[in-house]
Amino acid sequence: MGSVLWQLLRREWQLTWRRPGEVLNPLVFFAMVITLFPLAVGPEPALLQRMASGVIWVAALLATLLSLDGLFRSDFEDGSLEQWVLSPHPLTLLVLVKVLHHWLMCGVMLVLLTPVLGMMLALPWSVIPVLCATLLLGTAVLSLLGAIGAALTVGLKGGGSMLLALLILPLYIPVLILGTGAMDAALQGLPVQGYLLWLGCLAVLALSLAPLAIAAGLRIGVSE
Amino acid sequence: MAAEQIDIIDLACERDERELFARLDCCLQAGDVLQVAGPNGAGKTSLLRILAGLMPASAGDIHYAGRSILGGSGREFWRRHLLFLGHATAVKATLSAEENLSWLCALDQPVDREAIWDALAAVGLRGYEDVPCRQMSAGQQRRVALARLRLQTAKPVWVLDEPFTALDRAAVQVLEQQILAFARDGGIAVLTTHHSLDHLNEVRRLDLGRVC
């Protein structure tokens, strides 16, 4: 059982390595959106600092959404998903590894870019760790919830991305509110543990329930 | 490993409120090769997908070794015995032949590198082990998929959707003989093809056009 999951992670890594554009696109999008904000609203530090957490969170949310559309598409089109469904190994664990890989390539990469972009938006160094911690937990939830939408829209011919956004964005709102709330508290020097615990709760909840929903969605997609 | 008996009982399939076939009964035993024939749109692929357990049937049941494959422990048992090769072959264009086979076999039972190289040589792809499948012709990609038939030897039931597509004449003959040898060893093969198998006396034929 462990061996198949390890093989899957290796396969995903090989696929990513051969087509780096799919990973780079959301990262470039994230960096560009945040870079353009100071140019548009002006370089005044107080104003930028006030907007920083919201801008970073919205950009991270949209970048994740952008990367999710193709998550299962190519595996669906070339027949790989049929083989996954027919495998004696549980589909829930296979998709969990697939989403874990997506999170490593999207969420964790966004977090690595964040300190530099945070500085550009005049965030003080003291709140950068909080920002990174909330993003790390938050993007895990975004990947897991988003994969449900990607699984449900996998069989749709074209136009799936708009439906995906409509399905998933409302579910992203609690994460957005908690993430930006933690940042506001950190900027005012208030404790942030409460927000982090809430985000952790959501992450654990998504981790335990989302794989079941993703697997069910893919089974429906394959059976069409 | 010998295959158990497959019973298709009163099976029906509807797609978009159109009946493709109904009241289909068929019994397959170890050693049988069944060609599902019929015009385009007769439901050949649908029948194979229902048989594989990928698609629900609108009525009827399929039993393997006396247990329904549509749910429960019967389904688990069926999946361990079944090798399904769909119309889309699950070969990734960006991965090499070896990487593709290594992963597709690992989904069931991992196989080692030497076995994969031997299987690729047997399907005429010696020297293509590390070539990305994107650079291969359609026939060569089909051969990569068919190499699984030589690797996953513990599977006594083959369900093959259009396995002869894009193959050259020599490869078609090799595959025909491989399927017959597999059946003689106690396997069951169900396949669709528009290619005529009339010269093979052992092959049973199920005509979906006539059933309807």
TrEMBL record, chain A:
GO annotation, cellular component aspect: plasma membrane
Pfam family, one: CcmB
Transmembrane segments: 21-42, 54-72, 93-121, 127-156, 163-183, 195-218
Intracellular or extracellular location(s): Cell inner membrane
GO molecular function, one term: heme transmembrane transporter activity
Membrane topology note: Multi-pass membrane protein
Keyword field: Cell inner membrane, Cell membrane, Cytochrome c-type biogenesis, Membrane, Transmembrane, Transmembrane helix, Transport
UniProt cross-references to InterPro entries, sorted A to Z: Cyt_c_biogenesis_CcmB (IPR003544), Cyt_c_CcmB_bac (IPR026031)
GO-annotated biological processes: cytochrome c biosynthetic process; cytochrome complex assembly
Domain of life: Bacteria
Protein's job: Required for the export of heme to the periplasm for the biogenesis of c-type cytochromes.
Family: Belongs to the CcmB/CycW/HelB family.
Name of the molecule in the record: Heme exporter protein B
UniProtKB/TrEMBL annotation, chain B:
GO molecular function: ATP binding; ATP hydrolysis activity; transmembrane transporter activity
Domain ABC transporter residues, every copy: 6-211
Keywords carried by this UniProt record: ATP-binding, Cytochrome c-type biogenesis, Membrane, Nucleotide-binding, Translocase, Transport
SUPFAM superfamilies xrefs: P-loop containing nucleoside triphosphate hydrolases
Gene3D superfamilies: P-loop containing nucleotide triphosphate hydrolases
Pfam families the record matches: ABC_tran
InterPro entries noted in UniProt: AAA+_ATPase (IPR003593), ABC_transporter-like_ATP-bd (IPR003439), ABC_transptr_haem_export_CcmA (IPR005895), P-loop_NTPase (IPR027417)
GO BP terms: cytochrome complex assembly
Record-given protein name: Heme exporter protein A
